[in-house]
Amino acid sequence: MAQSIKRVVPLEQFKLIIEFDDGSLRQFPHARVTDTPLWFLAFPSKLRTCEVSPSGLQWQAVDQTLMWGGQNVWAQHASLDIPTLQEWSSPITLDELSMSLLNVAMTNQAPTEQDARHHVYFVGIRPFCEDNWVVLGESIGGGFAERGGSVALAVENLDSFSDWRGHCVLAGCDWMVALLEANVSDAQRKACILERYGASLTA
């Protein structure tokens, strides 16, 4: 039986995780694409806009502008079937992915009492982590004077964070509050977050 794609999960560090119907996982792309025909997928914002079907991935031209080397990154398009994706990807395990992060939202709220120019609130998720998968953090100052930090929590432990609801609002993802409070499974929460995040990329 031919292999088919079950889902695709974006992560930080310029990669997509492709999950197949047989449970196998592959990291795409497995190497730098800058000097290849897929050069535009070196831009995470473009890489994450892929359309997923059981038989492959597609990137459509989008009505946005990001110029690089005289070409518009968003105007590029590609369609890769499973054999091609296999060539451009490498296998990866759940253990290797357990701590991998996707930043769902981040907003600079400066000026604040802590810093006049750089006080970024962010909320992320660890899509392949089973327990402490909600990440809340701040970046204050930036550069060598960086302050702040982050914490990873299970949903049932969110109230141990002083004001996680307010933190979501400050980060720019107030919509996550109701979802994290909903009486649904973590798998459902993650799926909804990834869907909402994907829709925001080309909004």
Structure description:
This is DUF2442 domain-containing protein. This protein has 203 residues and is α+β, with helices and mostly antiparallel strands. It folds into two domains: 5-95; 98-200, no CATH class. It contains six helices and 13 strands. A four-stranded antiparallel β-sheet has the order 1-2-3-9. The longest helix has 15 residues, at 186-200. It is globular. 22% of the residues are buried. The model has no long low-confidence stretch (mean pLDDT 94).
What's this entry about, in short?
The chain has 203 residues and is an alpha+beta fold. The protein has helices at residues 44-47, 82-87, 94-97, 164-171, 175-181, 186-200, and strands at residues 5-11, 15-20, 25-28, 51-53, 56-59, 67-68, 71-72, 78-81, 90-91, 102-108, 119-125, 134-140, 147-153. Strand 2 (15-20) and strand 3 (25-28) form a beta hairpin.
- Shape assignment: globular
- Which residues form runs of ≥5 with pLDDT under 50? none
Residues in helices, as a percent range: 10-25%
* Major sheet characteristics: 4 strands, antiparallel
* Tally of distinct domains: 2
Strand arrangement across the biggest beta sheet:
1-2-3-9
Distance between the ends: 37 Å
What's the topology here?
Layout: E1 5-11, E2 15-20, E3 25-28, H1 44-47, E4 51-53, E5 56-59, E6 67-68, E7 71-72, E8 78-81, H2 82-87, E9 90-91, H3 94-97, E10 102-108, E11 119-125, E12 134-140, E13 147-153, H4 164-171, H5 175-181, H6 186-200
Antiparallel strand pairs: 1-2, 2-3, 3-9, 4-5, 5-8, 6-7, 10-11, 11-12, 12-13
